[in-house]
Design a protein that fits this description.
The chain is mainly alpha-helical and about 110 residues long. The protein contains four helices and no strands.
Length: about 110
Amino acid sequence: MERNNKYIETAWNEYSKKLLAFIRTKIKSHEDSKDILAAVFLKLAKQVELSGIPHKLSNWLYFVTRNSIVDYYRTKKTLEKLPEDLRQDQPDPQAISALSACIMPI
């Protein structure tokens, strides 16, 4: 256990700045970037505990980091409001006529 902790600490010292810089090229928020970095190292700790040390650590870290960034964007999908100039409270009669003309042949 102590050996694993030392390994993770060494990996942190060697790769955390590089990984954070990589994450920051993809994520605007500094806080979210730090959260992703922490999540990557938690995954490393789990990996070491369950399966041992990854064979090619740098490749493994960048692969997990990349996937974590993709996951971040998947969970951060937000519905953006329609701009005011595109909103219509009442239907446009001309638009309805034009649409009807297109649908009638069907």
